[in-house]
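Quick one: SSS sodium solute transporter from Saccharomonospora viridis, structure tokens please.
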Amino acid sequence: MHVLAEADLRLDANAIDYLLLALYFALVLGIGYLARKQVSTSLDFFLSGRSLPAWVTGLAFVAANLGAIEVMGMSANGAQYGMPTAHYFWIGAVPAMLFLGIVMMPFYYGSKVRSVPEFMLRRFGKPAHLVNGISFALAQILIAGANLYLLALVINLLLGWPIWVSVLLAAVIVLAYTALGGLSAAIYNEVLQFFVIVAALLPLTIVGLAKVGGWQGLVDKVSAGPGGAEQLNSWPGNQLTGFGSNFLSVLGLVFGLGFVLSFGYWTTNFVEVQRAMASKSMSAARRTPIIGAIPKMLVPFIVIIPGMIAGVSVSELAGDNKAALMRGEEAPSGATFNDALLLLMRDLLPNGMLGIAIAGLLASFMAGMAANLSSFNTVFTYDIWQSYIVKDKSDGYYLRVGRVITVIATVLAIGTAFIAASYANLMDYLQQLFSFFNAPLFATFILGMFWKRMTPTAGWAGLVSGTAAAVGVFLLAETGVWDLPGQGASFVGAGAAFVVDVVVSVAVTYATQPKPEAQLVGLVYSLTPKESLRHSTTGEDAGWYRRPGLLAGIVLAVTILFNIIF
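--- reply ---
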């Protein structure tokens, strides 16, 4: 990206664009200031006092995941692979979000735990808790760094500000509202950011389609270009997975992405679960991921399609440039697929709209980074600091620690931004991180939740060995021992992590002592009274449209339809 002449990407922003940006920043900081008035305890700071309505937490749930990496990375994927990128949404997100709402949330919300590692502590004891707490904290810092790097690059290229200025300004704004108002500030800003992102990307998609002659025009141009007509159908997605065989490609998508990576991310990633935990009732907590799944299944139309349009209409990415990039070589123009959205904005948007689009990109970055910070400070404060370093202090002490650690996390994220800088497609980097951290956690989690015999020793031994297996696959792919192009390495790594974790957990379980059943009530499915998993259907939770099962059924049916059509 650095090779591309900066002048080619510089957006001609004028006073009206800067005014819109200033208004947006003022609004974001104002929300943080107002949210601060509601923070009097650590529960208020870390979990919004469990007081938010389902529609707010539902939109925050999807916005927390709609970070700059998602918006820029999925557009890059759209330019590179086309429609198969939709698998990250229709296979790799929606089914797992529905499963979280229907099956997992009753356990999280009902047990009143404050974080996912705290659930691990109750189920498996301290070693598994510590392993999970440290690996989650590390993952959040690495992902926040990737968000930060992207934003700095975007501001540098669009507005010409030096990268260090961009990094510091963006980090300070996110830090200000997250440290002031805690999770409430992050969530209300995520709802605002969701609407800003849509307002930026929807016009870009419409104008882009008009430019290439509508959907049929896009179909014709993609078919005639590098990658060909295969990029217009989501199945079998061979270019995306890197497998030559259709069967292996579908298996990789369904098992690697759709089951291990997706369920591992959506059901155990505290960044997401934290938003549902902030809901005001069990019913609202269950509806949160289901409400979030509705916009999630529509996001491909405003993220992937602009990427595809850029891949055939932007001179720096089309034709020979695209062909070179798809071969893994440098494009003659010096552009990379990560530039797709920026180049399309440069070509298509007038002033005023440009200000909204830049605000949308900033919003997507800030939503992602605030989600990383607000979940990191909760896990570090409750699961590492309070549990192992400084115990039995006042609630006010832990509230102060939470604010201080938010500052430290921001500084660390500035450091990890440079790791992300070495990847040409940031989705490759992100999927790699998920295969290390999320896939083994999901295996341990799902076994522990449904198999009461599983022992505390098996909990941490499975986690460590699963992570080691994913790292092993990564090293084999990086050193060229195993040829896994595309995102095949992360799919295979996730599958290996899951299988190794399960095998080790089962073997260790039969060699060690399980916990007494009385200690597992509320933590294991078969030992939990069914009435404690039910939710209220009266008052604010009344009405057929508030029934989690019915909502989930409708969303699943529409998602299956999208998979058939595309």
